[in-house]
Design brief:
158 residues, 2,3-Dihydroxybiphenyl 1,2-Dioxygenase, domain 1, four-stranded mixed sheet, 23% helix, 34% strand, globular
């Protein structure tokens, strides 16, 4: 009797991001050094470009490839920025922040205690992708969160 194949591969979540990077091999190394990523797989084309690679950060997988402009596959540098950012939650955000910045991450928003109960900051990697490094510090009720948001973003007087 044949076993039934799972619709979602083992160790994957329902939504798995797939990013494009100019220099995917260098990016994998940077993500390992700066974010603690583990390389899961890598497949290169005959010309050496990475067609598909996968890394794991914590319990999450991220797929990636090199830029392939002939197929319309372009990274943030070519596009002039990225509309997407990633959140990485961990137990020691201050140490994670230091590691990422020491590896060359550019500070977009400094690491600070946020109104929503997280200690978070945003860095941009050398390849143009943005990463929020976060540690959840406080559970807030919906009402507490609303009040904190109102205080953080006061409405102008009419």
């Amino acid at each position: 009797m044949a076993t039934q194949v799972q619709a979602i591969p083992q160790n994957h979540q329902t939504v798995t991001p797939s990013i494009v990077v100019a220099g995917a091999a260098k990016a994998i190394e940077w993500y390992r050094k700066a974010l603690g990523a583990e390389e899961v797989s890598r497949f290169a084309a005959a010309d050496g470009r990475i067609m598909h690679a996968e890394i794991r950060i914590g319990d999450s997988h991220i797929m990636m490839s090199d830029e392939m402009p002939e197929y319309g596959v372009k990274g943030p540098g070519t596009l002039g920025g990225t509309p997407v950012s990633f959140f990485i939650y961990g137990a020691n955000v201050d140490a994670a922040w230091k590691r990422a910045v020491d590896a060359g991450g550019k500070t977009i928003m400094p690491l600070t205690d946020q109104f929503w109960g997280d200690r978070s900051g945003c860095i941009e990697d050398p390849f143009g992708h943005q990463w929020w490094l976060s540690q959840h510090m406080q559970d807030l009720t919906p009402e507490e969160l609303r009040k904190a948001a109102d205080a953080a973003f006061p409405q102008p007087a009419p």
